[in-house]
Amino acid sequence: MEYDYHVHSTYSDGRFLFQMVRAAAEAGLSGVGITDHCSVADDADLREQKHLLGFNLDQTYERRREAIERLREDVSIDIYDGVEMDYHPDDEDAIASFLDEAGFQYAIGSVHHLDGVNIHVEPYFRQQSASEREATVARYFDRLVSLVESELFDVAAHVDLIERNPALRGHATETQYRRVAEAFTRSRTVPELNAGRVLDEYGEFHPSPDFRDVLAEYGVSFTVGTDSHKPGEIGERVAHVEQYLDRRDLAPVELPV
């Protein structure tokens, strides 16, 4: 693993920029992408969440870019100026306009919310019946296919994020995996091998093993990202990604940055 394309900083929900970059260098990486969360959603509840959480990169990306430029003078690895955008089909025009204006080196797209609720919120989805959870998961994959088909993003992040939520885990179907795989074969967008929960309770990469098998069947390649929010996470997750790639003799896609 030479590049980590998915790392966060204090410009969203990570740690200080210099700490994250230094940790990436200590992990032996040649380059690290700073992809803080960003939303331009035209939804009152999501706007309020954004302001409460401080995910305001749409207002602060120029300041972060200046910080990245200063850091580039002091470190031996490449630092990429990226973004992780929340996606909803209704926001496609706003997303396209913002990405065109901001000029990031690359953009990651992700689906974090369903019904205005963050997918990580277990109690909300736990109260749903089994059939309602299946419908929720179906909506997630509908949204993911739309994201891939939108051609707005270079990378699709953690393409089965629902698996992080025990209330939704295990409801995905092979048919849904195949729909997503087919969409990737028609799109410039590539999925990532995401290590954000490989050392936590979930204990797996995204996509899950069954999903990865389907993507491999369709010849879909992927980038790699640790999805780290703390400096100490980068080195540990890089080691696990490298072991995975070595065992399978795989080479991830390198983004043209």
The CATH H-level homologous superfamily: Metal-dependent hydrolases
- CATH class descriptor: Alpha Beta
User: Do you know the CATH architecture?
Assistant: Alpha-Beta Barrel
For the largest sheet, list the strands in their spatial order. Answer: 1-2-3-4-7-8-9
Number of domains: 1
Rounded to an integer in angstroms, the radius of gyration calculated over CA atoms is: 17 Å
Tell me, briefly, the overall form: globular
Strand percentage lies at 15-25%
Tell me about the largest β-sheet: 7 strands, parallel
> What do we call the CATH topology?
TIM Barrel
**End-to-end span in angstroms?**
16 Å
Proportion in helices: 40-55%
Q: What is the element layout, followed by pairings?
A:
Blueprint: E1 3-7, H1 17-26, E2 31-38, H2 44-53, H3 57-72, E3 78-86, H4 92-102, E4 106-110, E5 113-114, E6 117-118, H5 122-126, H6 130-150, E7 155-156, H7 174-185, E8 190-194, H8 209-217, E9 223-225, H9 231-248
Parallel strand pairs: 1-2, 2-3, 3-4, 4-7, 7-8, 8-9
Antiparallel strand pairs: 5-6
Explain what you see.
The chain has 9 helices and 9 strands. By secondary structure, the chain is of the alpha/beta class. A hairpin with a 2-residue loop joins β5 and β6. The protein has a single domain (3-248), classed as Metal-dependent hydrolases (TIM Barrel, Alpha-Beta Barrel), CATH 3.20.20. It starts with a strand and ends in a 9-residue tail after the last helix. It has a 7-stranded parallel sheet. α6 (130-150) packs parallel to α7 and α7 packs across α8 (209-217).
